[in-house]
């Protein structure tokens, strides 16, 4: 089944030769604008935020970006659809019969395009008989002479294969936990018709880690001859946050300060994942100085304990100044005894 090609460069509003820094800057700008917690139109913002995250998930990773660029160079159908990559596509069940059956996920936060080329895929190789449990009328297995199997040689029950996918999890969901509806669809590639669809409620546990597998028992590929169904494993992918970086259960936040704030000291209000904290910046704060705010990170997995929030000072200098401001800077340069190149 062909899937719609996603132009991730257009999503982030950057050129194809954009630098890593330009891509990151574009993502942070858009992510702040469309973050569901701060946007006015939350429904529209949520979908846009997912698109932005998916684009940055690929373009923000050098290996994935290279692979994406190679895929894009072969996008020549002219219909806005991308053919399969070489080999068995991700998210496809290959049967023993003449056809392949493909599945896709809905409600995970990722598009079919991402799932096929950058996400998880099926494990195992079920045959046509295995598809009955998913709503297919698969043909009965036959013996060597084309006679249906009888009781004497009834197929041995066999467990269905597990399937894998990715689910986009926000830091807020990792903090509080959430319940999401995930839809698994089975498609006949010959017609493009969805022949079966099932919806499951996936519980995202409080304190889930990036890369952790969330297991939905019995939601995988159906078993053969009465065997148990496989499981569905959804691999948590943390949505990139415009303000926080994640390291285990700790969060890191870059705090921009004006030169005079760093020199004279100030008090700032910093927004955490679930509240606001007041932070005193002492006089003489240097770039890179880190302040620890206890208990404002992600859950550690031990009771109600949470990791730390580390606030890292960054000194920003103005790039444009008025004549009056330049006069003041010049006066400071004449009166100050500070020499940044002098050993200290």
In short:
The protein is built from 8 helices and 15 strands. With 344 residues, it is α+β, with helices and mostly antiparallel strands.
Descriptive account of the structure:
This protein has helices at residues 8-12, 20-34, 42-59, 62-73, 112-118, 171-176, 259-264, 323-335; strands at 3-4, 81-82, 92-94, 100-106, 163-169, 178-188, 193-204, 213-216, 232-238, 244-247, 250-257, 266-271, 276-281, 290-293, 309-315. It has 344 residues and is α+β, with helices and mostly antiparallel strands. The longest helix is centred in the first third of the chain and has 18 residues, at 42-59. It starts with a strand and ends in a 9-residue tail after the last helix.
Topology, element by element:
Layout: E1 3-4, H1 8-12, H2 20-34, H3 42-59, H4 62-73, E2 81-82, E3 92-94, E4 100-106, H5 112-118, E5 163-169, H6 171-176, E6 178-188, E7 193-204, E8 213-216, E9 232-238, E10 244-247, E11 250-257, H7 259-264, E12 266-271, E13 276-281, E14 290-293, E15 309-315, H8 323-335
Parallel strand pairs: 5-9, 11-15
Antiparallel strand pairs: 1-2, 3-4, 4-6, 6-7, 8-9, 10-11, 12-13, 14-15
Helix pairs in contact: 2-3
Number of helices: 8
Note the overall shape. Answer: elongated
Largest sheet: 4 strands, antiparallel
Helix-strand category: alpha+beta
Mean pLDDT: 82
Radius of gyration from the CA trace?
27 Å
- Termini separation comes to 65 Å
Strands in their spatial order, largest beta sheet? 3-4-6-7
What's the number of extended β-strand segments?
15
Oligomer: single chain
Proportion of residues in helical segments:
10-25%
State the order of secondary-structure elements, H for helix, E for strand. Answer: EHHHHEEEHEHEEEEEEHEEEEH
Fraction in beta strands:
25-35%
pLDDT below 50 for ≥5 consecutive residues: which ranges? 76-80, 84-100, 122-149
